[in-house]
User: Fold these one by one.
Assistant:
Number 1:
Amino acid sequence: MSKRDDLIVKYAADLKDKCGVTADMDLLTKVTVGLGPSIYNADSSTVSGSDEKELATVKNNYLIKKLGLSDGDALDKAIDSVIETYGKSNRTKYRAVVYYLLCKHFGKESIYS
């Protein structure tokens, strides 16, 4: 298996073990591929749930630009919900997992079709 495939397996395990979600492997793979080389960098591969600047980046670059959602309280609430689901005390929140959960939350799987 390639390094990317290994990471996708790790992300699926995180979804199951930490979020109680069985991953749609096709969608998880597409979300991971969409992140490009950032998944291989220790800093950019994770999301800090307590860093406002980081959460703003998730909102602006992913929810608004990638998924085409309109800015508003619903986006902030969705991010908070996903961080809560992943576990606020969990130090390592993989970006691919957070983006996957947000994509599912908003029903935007068609973006990756």
Number 2:
Amino acid sequence: MSSISNVDQVLAEMRRLTAAAQSSPVETGAVQNGSRTEFADLMKQSINQVNDTQQAASKLSSAFSAGDPNVDVTEVMIALQKAGVAFQAMTEVRNRLVSAYKDIMSMSI
């Protein structure tokens, strides 16, 4: 039953991220309490979230391998897939940032 709630949580997070990506920066929290949030801070938070997701998946996998009766194989598989998707998304963002940086650096002034 907990695997279903995990899937629901993942879907809710995906919907929230989709809505945040489609809304303006003010609506998504880019301006908080009258001060701007720096891009580097947002990237660091995202990387930390991906890292946390991967560590949680690793802990579940280790617990399942050790024979913990409270860990279900579906929970482990969902956590591993969630970590994989998060890492792939982060890699794509990095690739696009590098590409944009190269494009900007090759522009003549």
